[in-house]
Amino acid sequence: MDIEYVRNYCLSLPHTTEDMPFGDDTLVFRVGGKIYGLMGLNSGSINLKCDPERVEELRENHHYVLPGYHMNKKHWNTVLLNDGIEAKFLRSLIDHSYDLIFQSLSKKIKETLVDPR
Hints:
Elements: H1 3-12, E1 16-19, E2 26-31, E3 34-40, E4 45-49, H2 52-61, E5 65-67, E6 76-80, H3 87-104, H4 107-112
Antiparallel strand pairs: 1-2, 2-3, 3-4, 4-6, 5-6
């Protein structure tokens, strides 16, 4: 999976912003100021938020889904981009992470962001 493909998909989600607060090798995707994805530009992976009830099932059934690197392993997965992952499945993981973060935003922030999906 190409890093530019992942970046472009993340940026296509409503109200997504990107920055690099952790250095030149980690791209961060946010909605409402909260992180939903961290992509290592040299590692070929992305960290995505996940419902704790899905974490183990995803890791057991997909060899490219690992415990979140440098993250809370109960809530975050690291997804390897170049290890056979299908684009549709990756998009669903990104969407899930985005939705979890969007739903966790305060009412005040949500009022400034209208989710058109």
